[in-house]
Design goal:
The protein is an alpha/beta fold. The protein has a single domain, classed as Rossmann fold. It is about 55% helix and about 15% strand. It has nine helices and five strands, in the order E-H-E-H-H-H-H-E-H-E-H-H-E-H. It has a five-stranded parallel sheet with strand order 2-3-1-4-5, with helices on both faces. Helix 7 crosses helix 8. It is globular. The protein starts with a strand and ends with a helix.
Length: about 200
Amino acid sequence: MSFTVAIDGPAAAGKGTISKAVAAHFGFAHLDTGLLYRAVGAKVLAGGDPVSVARALDPSDLENDALRTPAVAQAASEVAAIGDVRAALVDFQRSFARKGDGAVLDGRDIGTVICPDAEVKIFVTASAECRAERRFAELSGKGMEVTLEQVIADVKARDHRDQNRAEAPLVPAQDAVMLDTSDLDIAQAVARAVEIIAAKRR
């Protein structure tokens, strides 16, 4: 019997790090669904048609370090607002969710749209300023020339677009457990998520 964990939240709240860690802890498969949209965004920046690219997406397209740039992140957020792109990627995500003994999917609409029947739903959040500082540290650490002000503006613009899009807006599922990481370090946030999942598995 497969066990699905849906972890949603805005950019840089820590959902990716938490998802990878809890997947490893429980021996579950992990899918960063944002990478699907980043892969589509990257191909669109290269001149592809968003819907055609989404329909032809292959798992190998997700194994690309270039998907982590700010330009691709913005393109991903833009293509994610296109209903036909989202529809093309739904089946990919749903089939992954029922893989093996369990799967952890992180994104923005996993608990509300992709896996509304997930056994566990967690909504990871943090203040915009806190998230921008984390993203700034990450990008600066990779040698990218960005300012904190620019990253704060990007985070807020992305939040607004994600929360206000017509298709699958970023909102917590009604039965999601809220996990605010503003004042938690990685170990504390992961421990809390493990606690939530373990309680549901008992």
